[in-house]
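#struct-help
A.M.: can someone run this one for me? Single chain, 452 residues.
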Amino acid sequence: MQLSAFLLLAFYLFLLWPLARWHHSRNSLAPAVFAGLLLGVLLGGLMHLAEGWGVNTPWVLDWIGLIGNGYVNLLHLLVMPLVLVLILAAVVKVSNTASLGKISGSVLVVLLGTTAIAAFIGVVIAHLFGLTAEGLVEGSREAARVDVLNERMGRVTDLSIPEILTSFISRNIFADLAGQRDTSVIAVVIFAVLMGLAALAVRRENPEQGAAIERFVTVAQAWIMKLVRLIMAFTPYGVMALVTALVAKSSWTDIFNLFNFVLASFVAIALMFVVHALLLMINGISPLHYFATVLPVLVFAFSSRSSAATIPLNVETQIDKLGNSPAIANFSASFGATIGQNGCAGIYPAMLAVMVAVPMGINVFDPVWLTSLIAVIVISSFGIAGVGGGATFAALVVLPTMGLPVQIAALLISVEPLIDMARTALNVNGAMTAGTLTQRWLGPSVEVAEAR
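D.P.: on it. Structure tokens below:
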């Protein structure tokens, strides 16, 4: 071990102290999260310079990863218990079961509707920036990725839509609670809803036993939310570690070579954030207040690149900061992590489709072709969790369905981490927007149902 590497790690650990002081001096989580983000960017840049000076930065990053990856693991640990308990509590406390259908329907309408808009924006931006697959170089890394994609595409194309939807139903709830399938989150949601409906049936037949179940669920909910808040206290340090690693490991040469695609992706993502803001404003919700409230959640989603890991912070922010009901917050956060992801399942496959279609002589603005593409994207965004989830697997469904090759997804692998950060933030914001709009549309009826 080099002394310089040890000193660099010691410097990193030393900076945790002023960050902790800043965190504890503020009532809000947001300032500390932004401080962690800024420190992470600066330290990541320092790591780049130190590597050029001959410092053993991989060793330093391994120890920094202990903080960042450890924090993400804690959040993943929370996901399944949190979804199970809070969805169960939502059903038990909303005695009018018709409200549950309205909540889930409203959330899905927003998620899938915005995904359709995201797909259209992806097509337009890819066309305006003149993106094309021609000229992209396939190196050894990309060639290896193509082999992986071809192998996974074989599994994807063998699944029909009914098979994908069937995978949402758990055959072994303990396996799904352990997150062993790509559809585990949705499977746990369905199981929790069924358990809640069974609890309501018990309450109708035996009010005393029903009251006991409700008391147990209430205690479990308070317990799990306390655990969430304990782990959320480590968010600034987790963000600092994750951003440091992301900046340090980014290849600026690859980013420069694919700068046009990177820029186009960020423009499309930014436009979808504007769409979310317009939807909120049209419904009488201040976009400025909304984004100021959810920004810490988006920063964590950006740095972690995990919609599932963001569920605990997503739920807590919707309930405590945005004033959404627990039922709405839990349904929107859970659905949004696996269905209708605006960035990964909307913008990304649409842009790839244009990049491949244009060299093949396809008119991407032909009404039939464009409508077919958007329809395929919306349908695949609903079931993409059944085939692995994520932007790459969305492309594996959309491109072959449209008769297009999938190799383009491998040729962009070098800039994927950077773009995926922004896509994940957009996915999470789509889920929170869906929850906030649903609260505005159905809030009074849900609150009445919960009060009964």
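A.M.: thanks! Confidence is low (pLDDT under 50) at residues 139-144, 385-389.
D.P.: also worth noting: Residues 57-93 form the longest helix (37 residues).
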